[in-house]
Specification:
It is built from nine helices and eight strands. The protein has about 210 residues and is α/β, with parallel strands linked by helices. The protein has a single domain, classed as P-loop containing nucleotide triphosphate hydrolases (Rossmann fold, 3-Layer(aba) Sandwich), CATH 3.40.50. The protein binds adenosine monophosphate. The site of adenosine monophosphate (AMP) has 16 residues, from helix 2 and helix 3.
Length: about 210
């Protein structure tokens, strides 16, 4: 099964993509995670991408498209995948149509005012990549799953978050129509607990079978 999760920054698409990919036994392909890995390793691509990411802007299409094309051909994606954070622009969506056919697009909707609060309290595990709101953590420095150290993403500062939401509205929101016209869009209410949302996403996916 080939799925794509769509939603503004803070909608919880990364968290949901991780959970659902594990339940379905398919690959979780997050372009944001792949870019952060490049930044962490100090590669040329990572250094270039960091400038855009820290400013809340999108990394150029060419770089992203090459990265995803290579990733979907890896063995763990043979049974299917969830694309998380890709495509984000019309050019990316059109290119994706040329090399993969999506079964469904899950659009996770959350009101704007909740997005800022969710992102500004976000903590990510350096080791396993799990994401939490700081209010859920007993120890803000330590991952409750793997004990790795937690960090705040460089692009999770309030000013950058506002830019990211605006860039999303301008460049990515039009993809909602693009996939609605193809008849593969499924709208999910992204408010509520992580488990409640995961149940709704799973129900939408089960209905496809
Ligand atoms: P995310 O982890 O999905 O929120 O992505 C973090 C940042 O990585 C974004 O704000 C962009 O700067 C960059 N990024 C991730 N995916 C893409 C993409 N498909 N196109 C362009 N930039 C991306």
């Amino acid at each position: 099964m080939k799925l794509m999760f769509l939603g503004p920054p803070g909608a919880g698409k990364g968290t949901q993509a991780r959970i659902i990919a594990e339940k379905l036994g398919i690959a979780h392909i997050s372009t944001g995670d792949m870019l952060r890995e490049q930044v962490k390793n100090g590669t040329a691509l990572g250094l270039k991408a960091k400038e855009y990411m820290d400013a809340g802007q999108y990394v150029p299409d060419g770089v992203i498209i090459d990265m995803v094309k290579e990733r979907v051909n890896k063995p763990d994606a043979r049974e299917g995948f969830i694309l998380d954070g890709f495509p984000r622009t019309a050019a990316q969506a059109e290119t994706l149509d040329g090399f993969a056919s999506l079964d469904a697009v899950i659009n996770i909707g959350v009101p704007d005012e909740m997005l800022i609060d969710r992102i500004c309290g976000r903590r990510v595990c350096t080791d396993c990549g799990a994401t939490y709101h700081e209010s859920m953590l007993h120890d803000k420095e330590k991952c409750p799953v793997c004990s790795g150290s937690m960090y705040v993403r460089d692009d999770d500062k309030e000013e950058t978050v506002r830019t990211r939401i605006n860039v999303y509205k301008e460049k990515t929101q039009p993809l909602i129509d693009y996939y609605a016209k193809k008849g593969i869009l499924h709208e999910i209410d992204g408010t509520g607990t992580i488990d409640e949302i995961a149940d709704k996403v799973m129900a939408a996916i089960e209905a496809l079978k």
